[in-house]
Amino acid sequence: MEKIELNGQTLRKMRKRRGMSQDILADRLHMSRGNISKLEHDKLEIRGKDLMRWVQETNSLDMLVAMGAQIDLASATQMIVDFVPTAGFIFILGGLI
User: Fold this and answer.
1) Is 22 in contact with 57 (CB distance < 8 Å)?
2) pLDDT tens per residue, range 49-64
3) CB 3: neighbour CB atoms within 10 A?
4) For residues 29 and 53, what is the distance between their CA atoms, to the nearest angstrom?
5) In this protein, which residues make up the domain named HTH cro/C1-type (predicted)?
6) Percentage of the residues of the chain whose pLDDT score is greater than 70
């Protein structure tokens, strides 16, 4: 089981899984394509707020969870799948009480 680390290769994988070009992601993150390239080649360190926007735009919450929990991607994905229905139920229940 491969653990995921925050590095340029991981950022690139997030973007490519979504099928996005560097130009499209740069536009959505309000960055230059050059900075996207630098981040993906470990020439520039990503800031926390930019990482969160990157995760949102690439729909990569599973990878963020895997990095934070130091677990493999499959386990992180399963955690999210298991949590989402529970969170919805708690939200609905909270509205009824």
Assistant:
1) no
2) 999 999 999 999 888 8
3) 11
4) 7
5) 11-64
6) 67
- Domains of the chain by range and CATH? 8-96 (1.10.260.40)
**Reported pTM:** 0.70
Q: 38, 39, 76, 34: which is closest to 54 by C-alpha?
A: 39
Q: What is the mean pLDDT of residues 4-28?
A: 94
* Residue 6's pLDDT band (cuts 50, 70, 90): confident
Residue with tokens 């493999």: 72
Name residues whose C-beta falls within 8 Å of residue 44's C-beta, 6 or more positions apart in sequence: 35, 38
